[in-house]
Specification:
This protein is of the alpha/beta class. The protein has helices at residues 30-42, 77-91, 107-114, 139-149, 151-160, 166-171, 184-197, 200-214, 220-234, 237-249, and strands spanning 5-9, 14-19, 49-54, 59-61, 96-100, 103-105, 117-121, 125-127, 177-179.
């Protein structure tokens, strides 16, 4: 499809959604994220389990497409697309499994962390390097990181900006299982079919209960303050310079 989201039924019960931009490590943008949300809202309701993955075997997703970012406050519009996709993952009645191979960065991490189960290949390279690009992540992602990994590790991931391997990621709770790269698709299919074969009302009720338990509403003033910090960072000259330098490293220009 135009958005480079490949839609397949692995069986009559398991839906696989593949970010299909392997030459660039599967970056996402507004169009692709919107297509992902639509598929989850339509076909996701018919599935017993959903798998989200990246094409090519070397990357889940490198994050939001740099070509769609220009170093201005308008870049915050990406939040709406990311938020819509995340909410669609959470609202999907079927459990969503992220099959994470190789590179997983930025917005790719947020998509993966929103999934109910997160299987990672042993070649995982995971990072959140927004600070180096002059960006403050969405409050919802930061809150999710603190919930999963704890405040100290969330701070380390966001401020020290390490690239985590599979062993660290599973120890921190960022992924739920690590599988040898050669066997990750087989293991993902096995897990998805097992879930899809279980009584649907029990699976859906358990997922809904877990999502409800994780939704501790943020105080409105916290969201407002976070929005102010993000707008300030998005419009700073330092952020534009950092983004320009990053694009030059990738052979692109603003």
């Amino acid at each position: 499809m135009a958005a480079d989201l490949r839609v397949e039924w692995w069986s009559d019960r398991v839906l696989a959604l593949t970010i299909d931009r392997p030459r660039r490590r599967n970056p996402v943008d507004g169009e692709l994220l919107s297509a992902l949300a639509v598929e989850l809202e339509t076909n996701g309701t018919k599935a017993g389990a959903v798998v989200l993955r990246g094409a090519g075997g070397t990357a889940f997703s490198a994050g939001f497409d740099f070509d769609q970012l220009h170093g201005t406050e308008a870049d915050l519009e990406a939040d709406q697309a990311i938020g819509k996709a995340v909410e669609a993952i959470l609202a999907c009645p079927a459990p969503v499994i992220s099959m994470i191979q190789g590179h997983c960065h930025g917005a790719g991490v947020e998509l993966a962390l929103s999934c109910d189960l997160r299987l990672a290949a042993d070649d995982l390279q995971l990072s959140l390097r927004a600070v180096s690009l002059g960006v403050v992540y969405r409050y919802q992602l930061i809150s999710r990181l603190v919930e999963i990994a704890g405040l100290g590790r969330a701070a380390d991931l966001l401020l020290a900006m390490p690239v985590l391997g599979a062993a660290e990621a599973v120890a921190w709770g960022l992924v739920t299982e690590v599988v040898p790269a050669a066997g990750i698709e087989a293991r993902t299919r096995e897990l998805a079919e097992m879930l899809a074969a279980a009584p649907r009302s029990a699976v859906e009720g358990t997922k809904a209960s877990l999502v409800l338990a994780s939704r501790r509403p943020a105080a409105s003033d916290a969201l407002e303050q976070s929005g102010r910090w993000r707008r300030r960072a998005a419009t700073s000259p330092e952020r534009r310079a950092a983004l320009e330098a990053a694009k030059k490293r990738l052979g692109r220009s603003l």
